[in-house]
Amino acid sequence: MIPGALTVGGQSSGANIAAGAAIALRDAGRADIRFELLEVPALDLSHSLHRPEGEDLPLRLADVRSFTRAYLTGPSDASQAWASPLLAPDLPGLPPTHVAVAEFDVLRVDGERYVERLRQAGVPAQLHLGTGHVHISPSMTRLLPSARA
C-alpha cells in the first residue's frame, strides 16, 4: 500500500457510507484519503430534498424511505453528516470526488446537489450522468455496454 493513496467509494447505500466516512475521517484529521468515488449515492436520509416518487422505476422513493427507517436508529440520526452527507455543515477539505448518477433514478438529485456543494466548498468534483440508466445500471456491466464503459 502506498501511504496517502487511499480511496473511499461505494454504490447507493455504500456511497452514503463512503461519503459519511470521508467527512468523519476529515474531521478526525486524516489527510490520507485522496479520492472519493460515489455511484448513484443516497446522500440525504432526512428526505428534505424534493425527489420524484419514481413509481415506474426499479427504485421508488417509498423503497428509499423504507431502507432509511431500517438503517437509522432514530429520526435525529437523519440530520447527522454520517447519515446525510449532503446536509453536512461544511465540506472543505474533502478529497476530489467523482459522482455518477443515473438519468432515471429518484436519487439523482442527491448526487447532483452534492457535486454542487463540493464545488462551492472548493473541492474538485466531477459529475457523470448515466444517460438512459436507472439506479441499478452501474452493476449491469455484462448487459449494458454503457455500464461497462
Topology, element by element:
Elements (H helix, E strand, L loop, with lengths): L5 E6 L1 H15 L5 E7 L21 H11 L25 E8 L3 H13 L4 E10 L10 H4 L1
Parallel strand pairs: 1-2, 2-3, 3-4
Description:
- By secondary structure, the protein is of the alpha/beta class.
- It has a single domain (6-148), classed as Alpha/Beta hydrolase fold, catalytic domain (Rossmann fold), CATH 3.40.50.1820.
- The chain contains four helices and four strands.
- The chain has a four-stranded parallel β-sheet with strand order 1-2-3-4, covered by helices on one side.
- The chain is globular and about 45 Å long.
- The model has no long low-confidence stretch (mean pLDDT 91).
Poorly predicted ranges (pLDDT <50, ≥5 residues)? none
Radius of gyration: 15 Å
Strand order of the largest sheet: 1-2-3-4
Helix and strand succession? EHEHEHEH
Distance between the termini: 27 Å
- How many β strands by DSSP? 4
Shape annotation:
globular
- Number of helices in the DSSP assignment: 4
CATH topology call: Rossmann fold
Helix-strand makeup class = alpha/beta
CATH class: Alpha Beta
Q: Considering DSSP H and I runs of 4 or more, what fraction of the residues is helical?
A: 25-40%
The biggest sheet amounts to: 4 strands, parallel
Strand content: 15-25%
CATH superfamily annotation: Alpha/Beta hydrolase fold, catalytic domain
The total tally of domains equals: 1
The name of the CATH architecture is 3-Layer(aba) Sandwich
Mean pLDDT over the residues: 91
